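Exercise (ungraded).
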Amino acid sequence: PAGRLDVIAGPMFSGKSEELMRRVRRAKIAGVTVLVLSHSLDTRSDLSAITSHIGVNIPAVPVGDVDSLAEAARAEDYDLVAIDEAQFFGPDLVPVVMELVEGGATVIVEGLCVTFDGGPFEPMPTFMAVAEDVLKLTAVCTICGRDAVFHQRVGAPGRTAEESEPRATDIDASHIGGSESYVARCREHFAPPR
Ligand code: ADP
């Protein structure tokens, strides 16, 4: 029988990693076979772990691209495959995840669904459209405390945010990093780069 696709989506600081870790911990207690995959580009965490902003971590297998991810996931018949920071893998991740789900696995895809200029960040919107379940999380606006559906880049020291601005969907190391380069913002206080 086919498996299922569960999505955990939101901006930075919304607790996506914490929620993924919670579900993985529960699955391990339940005795299901679990594979946790992270992108090796994610310098925030130890290479063999996923780490939340509060520093909690769980073991993960780092993979550098979609092909290595597919290879790792096909190596065994896992009941649960959890993918951290799925936006790093780009749209080619979609067919690989669908194949795993159709093959009987439960796949949890966790990642950013918005770019720092406030647009949709593929492949998460695509996964959200076809998932059995979607958990859409918000962070806390650093100005007013309301629900933040966005995150925005703050300028590196000595440069304006504009000068240090990569393209919003660039997948590179400048997209990673926590509180030092991005802040969570509600709709009212979000000021996207021009
Ligand atoms: P994500 O994976 O969505 O980036 P994490 O699970 O890594 O989020 O971290 C969420 C944690 O970050 C929260 O539980 C909280 O302790 C901390 N945090 C720091 N800044 C904020 C913020 N602006 N809004 C919400 N949580 C924040």
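Further reading is listed at the end of the chapter. For now, observe: The CA atoms of residues 47 and 69 lie 14 Å apart. The domain at 4-137 is CATH 3.40.50.300 (Rossmann fold).
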